Amino acid sequence: MLGCGVVGSEVAARLQSRAEALEERIGAPLVLTAVVVRDPDKERPGVDASVLTTDAEAAIDGADIVIELMGGIEPAKTLITRALAQGSSVVTANKALLAAAYGELMAAADDSEVRLEHEAAVAGAIPIIRPVGDSLAGDRIDRIMGIVNGTTNYILDQMDSQGWDFDAALASAQELGYAEADPTADIGGHDAAAKAAILSSLAFHAPVTIDDVHVEGITGITAEMVETAKDQGFVIKLLAVCERVTDSPAGAGLSARVYPALLPRTHPLASVHGAFNAVFVEAEAAGSLMFYGQGAGGAPTASAVLGDVVSVARRKVLGGRGQYERPFHPERRVLPISAITTRYHITLDVVDRPGVLAAVSEVFADEGASIELMRQTIGEVDDEGIQHAKLVLATHENTDAALSRTVDRLGDLDVVRAVASVIRAEGQ
Amino acid sequence: MLGCGVVGSEVAARLQSRAEALEERIGAPLVLTAVVVRDPDKERPGVDASVLTTDAEAAIDGADIVIELMGGIEPAKTLITRALAQGSSVVTANKALLAAAYGELMAAADDSEVRLEHEAAVAGAIPIIRPVGDSLAGDRIDRIMGIVNGTTNYILDQMDSQGWDFDAALASAQELGYAEADPTADIGGHDAAAKAAILSSLAFHAPVTIDDVHVEGITGITAEMVETAKDQGFVIKLLAVCERVTDSPAGAGLSARVYPALLPRTHPLASVHGAFNAVFVEAEAAGSLMFYGQGAGGAPTASAVLGDVVSVARRKVLGGRGQYERPFHPERRVLPISAITTRYHITLDVVDRPGVLAAVSEVFADEGASIELMRQTIGEVDDEGIQHAKLVLATHENTDAALSRTVDRLGDLDVVRAVASVIRAEGQ
């Protein structure tokens, strides 16, 4: 085992406490031969001190299974590559590494005919990798939409249920330990983007990295936006969307994107509260599926790691090759967000006078974008005595580029005093 | 393939339409060598007529994989046993057979070192067998609570959302094709009980059959019960509960039971609407997980069958043994419902006079059962001029036997005119 933090300690403790059950399920005992740590003198409750070492290479050599829980790109990548090359199977929870080098590492596993398992790298304890990779292997996955970051889901859920503003919800998340002191990776959407890259690579057998994922975080979400969404029967969630695109201005391909979006309150993902995660999958034959559970935490993540360890160990006991060359489609490229079809909800602060709707409509028509729904409510009279109105527009599906241009041009109209908010809508 | 009804036709069609993708994922082509039907002259769109046959034994002999979609105990059992004995792996969707002979068939598969897969037999398209059997193999499953029958969920959901009575909801289910002309297996809870037996066998490595499962159906659920539940923040669902019991008056063991029960509206299972299925799993390390999707239908069930076929075929291509002796604990017996700890919600029609609460409380105290919550509302004055009251009692956890006896004795009290309803509560 490489690394022994919160998850690692839990894995080590459970390897001991569940030894009998694990041996029964595998048909052979699991022996923890080495735990690689920076400081082997630090006491680790539940971990046998005699297996602690700083020598990663010696620990790897000859191991049947290497469990990588260090995180980060290096030295994890070099060590995993070494393990795979010598014929060890690898179990990892390292989302950053997989989001950077999924294709390369899987190819290395295939070459050595061993396994590289990573259930814990996406949505913690929720079995999502095996269902997508195995259970749906006879089906065609069209779309995956996930709430894969617990911190942001907690923040948005508190804003929705308590009426808090973003800062208050973030402070609460930090107090409860859901958010780090520097919450950028979570609230900026980067953590979710790493998971979107892994899910896309797995579901579509394509080389998707975090750099291919379009990312928008939740820092721009205001209490007012949440309130307006609520009034209209929506909830705002940070979604990771992975999609097979058959037709777009940029051709066929994939979409991998992370952004806050409106979801109808009747959507299964809308009832995912607190720091929970859930992944919604649409497949051609299976229809809609959802997987729900805890996305983080020592024990839940350890459960996913140990499930992978059992799976790899069983295969070892049964004999045969561990893996062969997986399908891989480098031609399945991720299309830019501009070519993807989305829906916008746009809130405008406009001057309340005849001709406003005509001016707004003309911009949409000009960009080839179409409006599904328009709602105007009377606003305040400003200091200059001008009557304002609030105009909420929900668009039909259009390319994101056309909608984005439409928003820019709406902002330039004389009658529009401000574009109060813009948010995409999903799940309809 | 044995049998070619709605699911079988879909499987055959998808083996053709997805041939390239399947070959890519397996590393070898899948060839449908024979489809065993009663009437080979009947036209089956999408199925090559030349592989249709009535000779099941000839079709099985030499097949790498046998897909059993006949349903029922015999001849399915004899044919599956023949296939396993000769070294073919088997994929089945046959819940009746597995609920009767899970242990026996799995032992036959183990003896021949081949696979017996059955993802489609529980909750249709939802990957639940693989997550429970594989992903959570390193964890300890404590409890499974499932909505595993779409027909009854549709009926209860319509009663809840539309205010319909049971008969109207059943008629609607029949009209939409969710319920059979003879709906007994669904509304009596027997279909759910078969699935509870399979889930229990799988999760607890124990020989649980449908005869071990305590079953109550939904025919006694009235519009008034649904309404009362709603007022109190509950929804009524038909639940299949599979539980590890460490301590009970009858010792340690398992519980497998199916009955309609109150669930808090905040519970993830409460938001499972229409004919959808969902399985809620509680594991020691992973915590709470939920799996949601379509529980029936040709295409969803075919998706699950094909996922199993790909899994078995991959293993064949990789070489090695298909299976070894699985853990099996015949000592893990299913305890009678009387020994299981549950909660009741009891509604009484009582005479509104001093001493009623004392009389009721005394019965509880006498049976060692305790009341969590009591709510009294004024009722009508009857023909004899006597003022009635409605008394709703929610109990703490007690053995089902004690609660059941309490209800009997409450009914015998002079002040109690009628036990209006009794329903268990779960998920708190």
TrEMBL record, chains A, B:
Xref: InterPro entries: ACT-like_dom_sf, ACT_dom, Asp/hSer_DH_NAD-bd, HDH, HDH_cat, HDH_CS, NAD(P)-bd_dom_sf
Catalysed reaction, written as an equation: L-homoserine + NAD(+) = L-aspartate 4-semialdehyde + NADH + H(+); L-homoserine + NADP(+) = L-aspartate 4-semialdehyde + NADPH + H(+)
Active-site residues from the entry: K195
Function: Catalyzes the conversion of L-aspartate-beta-semialdehyde (L-Asa) to L-homoserine (L-Hse), the third step in the biosynthesis of threonine and methionine from aspartate.
Record EC number: 1.1.1.3
Cofactor requirement: a metal cation
Name the record gives this protein: Homoserine dehydrogenase
Keyword field: Amino-acid biosynthesis, Methionine biosynthesis, NADP, Oxidoreductase, Sodium, Threonine biosynthesis
Residues binding L-homoserine: E180
GO BP annotation list: methionine biosynthetic process; threonine biosynthetic process
The ACT domain, residue ranges: 345-424
SUPFAM superfamilies in the record: ACT-like, Glyceraldehyde-3-phosphate dehydrogenase-like, C-terminal domain, NAD(P)-binding Rossmann-fold domains
Pfam families attached to this UniProt entry: ACT, Homoserine_dh, NAD_binding_3
Keyword NADP: yes
